[in-house]
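Summary of Year 1 activities. Much of the first year was spent building the evaluation harness for sequence design. The harness presents a backbone, in tokenized form, and records the residue chosen at every position. We chose the following record to illustrate the format because it has been used consistently in internal testing since the harness was completed.
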């Protein structure tokens, strides 16, 4: 993890401003920013603001063709991207890799020189819609638009500034892209106002998100509703798994009548999983269903749903964190006007509303009186609280004149255990418009007839679902940024769905899995039936199965146990795992407390007491240490594995700057058994195992590297250790030698090396195996040797198997 202070951001932004000046990019010129969330992204944005250049943010998932179409419209003079890739049709466009930006601008002064003659109506950025069938339209946003939202928020924050000191700093984990206006608000501006901290993450894996929240003491999690739903499913299953379904239901029902503090106490164990500093979710980008909001509220968390559009510089309303009204999306921000028209469509007017689109295209959604027609339906109570009721274009008007809101039907359907997801659209029936429920089954073997009957019991007669169809995939098509369901795409396929009949739902559910298998293996799979074996039929090796697992988790936002997908797993079994939504993961202890004070100091004291003893017993001959003289950490050391004292020997052979901050990988299954012995183990042995665990992890900074499953979390922990400035020692054989000869290096080590992206130093221990056989604890001088090889830099895109083989060769040759 790389940390930037706001002062560093400001200085580097000023340097980028000077870089823009040197490139003759002036006020009003456009600059494309196409990349993942990062400090460099923020630097590029503020540098454009200082120069008066217009930022054109693009989602990191935007296709190169889309970027080229945007460039054709705006004629940008510079592109900042994750890598130096020029989109087609923009061959003359200069490109700067975002990761290289700080080094590139280092030569410039940090003096801030804002653009001259800046006016409220000057453009700040142009945000393009990600259309595929039509030419993208760029919403033009000015300083006036932004300030209309930021000023009232800042004014409200000032009222509570005196209390903020008790929870300072407020830490935000922002999972929304900065190319999204709401992502900018919560990822840049609000943390600045609070003097808080903001964390960025690429992965949307729910388990990793919860772990990030806990370990970094996050206060507020900013995400899209789809992600919050995935978190609800995971946490709900975990709670039910521990308490039992009936016990959880009783506790959950009782929580509805409790106050915030009593709800927090009732689910205190869950709050400890997130960390005691965490208290709120902030959602944006799409509508949040009531069931998910109520779930988190009853567990004692605050859920704030921001409402707005790109055309309103992000916000129209947002709930007050201390004055929330259930199911409300808040009151209109001061300075804005909000009302309903005769059809209950939400209209908004104020200085936050964009005046139009790039290229002089007028906003046809703004009427002659300046009211922006949002296309959303809502209600406003007597206190001014706004309630979202759905999209106007989605409302189904029956032949009787009665209106059916798809959101109401979808809420009823999602409460049924047979339904994994659903989308209700309007179709033309025999007697006029009627709703069609498009369903994704949780389990293809379960009938949905009873689910629909139960859903209809909670609906008014005119809302009843009379027609339904099964979606033939495991996920609806969604927008890449906000994860909204693309009902337009679903509607286009309705004739095919209806003609296929209700049994079609389970026929092609493996399409995503097969697509990923083809991508990983490099060739289309020869078989696609449920009995197809991942290893023998679909040609996936161990690394391929790990990559498939990661792709499934990222796509469906679920967590799967690595041990659940083995060499004998079939395609049908993978599908059933996905429909189950989760599996009990293999839990290994990852003791990050060993890398913090005072354990780090205690370890140093003990280390320098132990090392003289180790040198006296073995008197190791060290060679190749000259390869470390000009090497700066962090470094990954890899060594052959002979005995349990190998880490101590290597520690004694390394220079102090590497030795003092070294994390050692150890067999995860052994560590887990020490920390949580089986129930059959007697109490004395249990105490001995736990003491053994405590001493080993404390004194040698050990972390688990499992042999069977769970090693992806180990890879993450190794990366976190590197980020904290620790070096890492790994034994790629995965086990101690039984014959004295080296075992083959596991391919997973190659994957770890590629992910860490740090220099790799091979090490070889010789002369220890004969002592082990004779159980001899003292060695003559030079009888045991430690050889250190030349550092190796590995390309992160290189083949993990090839990396492992190359390192094995280097260790053998030492």
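For this record, the design step produced the sequence shown next.
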């Amino acid at each position: 993890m790389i940390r930037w202070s706001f002062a560093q951001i400001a200085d580097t932004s000023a340097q980028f401003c000077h870089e823009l000046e040197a490139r003759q990019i002036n006020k009003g010129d456009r600059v494309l920013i196409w990349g993942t969330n990062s400090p460099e992204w923020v630097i590029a944005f503020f540098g454009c603001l200082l120069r008066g250049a217009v930022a054109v943010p693009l989602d990191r998932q935007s296709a190169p063709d889309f970027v080229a179409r945007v460039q054709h419209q705006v004629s940008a003079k510079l592109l900042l991207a994750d890598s130096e890739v020029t989109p087609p049709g923009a061959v003359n466009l200069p490109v700067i890799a975002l990761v290289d930006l700080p080094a590139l601008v280092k030569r410039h002064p940090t003096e801030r020189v804002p653009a001259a003659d800046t006016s409220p109506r000057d453009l700040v950025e142009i945000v393009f819609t990600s259309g595929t069938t039509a030419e993208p339209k760029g919403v033009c946003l000015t300083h006036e638009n932004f300030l209309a939202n930021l000023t009232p928020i800042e004014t409200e924050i000032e009222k509570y500034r005196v209390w903020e000191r008790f929870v300072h700093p407020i830490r935000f984990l922002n999972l929304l892209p900065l190319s999204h206006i709401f992502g900018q608000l919560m990822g840049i501006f609000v943390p600045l106002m609070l003097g808080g901290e903001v964390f960025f993450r690429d992965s949307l894996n729910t388990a990793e998100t919860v772990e990030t929240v806990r370990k970094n003491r996050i206060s507020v999690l900013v995400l899209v509703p789809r992600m919050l739903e995935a978190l609800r499913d995971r946490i709900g299953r975990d709670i039910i798994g521990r308490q039992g379904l009936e016990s959880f239901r009783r506790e959950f029902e009782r929580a509805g009548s409790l106050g915030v503090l009593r709800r927090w106490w009732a689910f205190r164990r869950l709050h400890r999983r997130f960390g005691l500093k965490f208290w709120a979710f902030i959602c944006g980008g799409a509508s949040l269903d009531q069931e998910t909001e109520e779930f988190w509220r009853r567990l004692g968390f605050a859920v704030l749903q921001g409402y707005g559009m790109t055309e309103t510089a992000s916000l129209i309303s947002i709930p007050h964190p201390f004055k929330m009204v259930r199911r409300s999306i808040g009151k209109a921000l001061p300075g804005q006007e909000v009302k309903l028209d005769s059809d209950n469509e939400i209209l908004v007017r104020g200085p936050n509303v964009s005046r139009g689109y790039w290229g002089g295209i007028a906003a046809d959604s703004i009427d002659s009186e300046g009211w922006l027609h949002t296309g959303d339906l809502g209600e406003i109570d007597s206190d001014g609280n706004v309630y979202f009721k759905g999209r106007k274009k989605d409302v189904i008007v029956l032949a009787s004149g009665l209106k059916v809101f798809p959101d109401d039907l979808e809420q009823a359907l999602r409460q049924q255990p047979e339904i994994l997801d659903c989308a209700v659209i309007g179709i033309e029936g025999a007697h006029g418009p009627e709703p069609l429920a498009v369903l994704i089954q949780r389990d293809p073997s379960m009938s949905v007839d009873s689910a629909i009957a139960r859903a209809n019991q909670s609906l008014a007669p005119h809302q009843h679902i009379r027609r339904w169809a099964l979606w033939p995939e495991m996920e609806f098509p969604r927008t890449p940024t906000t994860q909204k369901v693309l009902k337009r795409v679903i509607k286009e396929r309705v004739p095919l769905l209806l003609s296929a009949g209700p049994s079609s739902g389970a026929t092609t559910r493996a399409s995503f899995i097969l697509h990923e298998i083809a991508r990983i293996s490099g060739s289309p799979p020869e078989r696609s039936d449920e009995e197809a074996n991942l290893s023998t039929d679909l040609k996936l090796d161990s690394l391929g199965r790990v990559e498939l697992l990661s792709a499934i988790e990222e796509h469906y936002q679920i967590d799967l146990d690595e041990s659940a997908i083995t060499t004998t797993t079939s395609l049908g079994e993978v599908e059933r795992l996905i429909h189950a939504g989760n599996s009990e993961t293999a839990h290994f202890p990852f003791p990050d407390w060993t890398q913090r004070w005072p354990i780090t100091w205690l370890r140093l004291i003990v280390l320098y007491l132990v090392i003289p003893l180790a040198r006296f017993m073995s008197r190791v001959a060290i060679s190749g240490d000259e390869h470390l003289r000009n090497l700066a950490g962090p470094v990954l050391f890899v060594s052959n594995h002979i005995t349990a004292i190998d880490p101590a020997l290597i520690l004694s052979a390394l220079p102090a700057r590497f030795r003092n901050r070294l994390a050692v990988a150890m067999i995860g299954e052994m560590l887990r058994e020490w920390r949580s012995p089986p129930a059959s183990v007697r109490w004395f042995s249990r105490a001995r195992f736990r003491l053994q665990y405590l001493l080993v992890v404390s004194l040698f900074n050990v972390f688990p590297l499992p042999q069977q499953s769970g090693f992806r979390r180990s890879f993450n922990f190794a990366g976190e250790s590197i980020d904290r400035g620790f070096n890492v020692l790994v034994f790629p054989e995965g086990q101690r030698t039984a014959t004295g000869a080296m075992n083959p290096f596991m391919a997973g080590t190659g994957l770890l090396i590629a992910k860490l992206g740090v220099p790799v130093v091979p090490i070889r221990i010789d002369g220890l195996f004969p002592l082990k056989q004779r159980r001899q604890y003292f060695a003559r001088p030079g009888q045991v040797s430690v050889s250190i090889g030349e550092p190796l830099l590995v390309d992160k895109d290189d083949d993990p198997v090839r990396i492992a083989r190359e390192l094995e060769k280097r260790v053998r040759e030492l």
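The domain at 152-348+367-390 is CATH 3.40.50.12780 (Rossmann fold). Quantitative recovery figures across the full test set are reported in Table 2.
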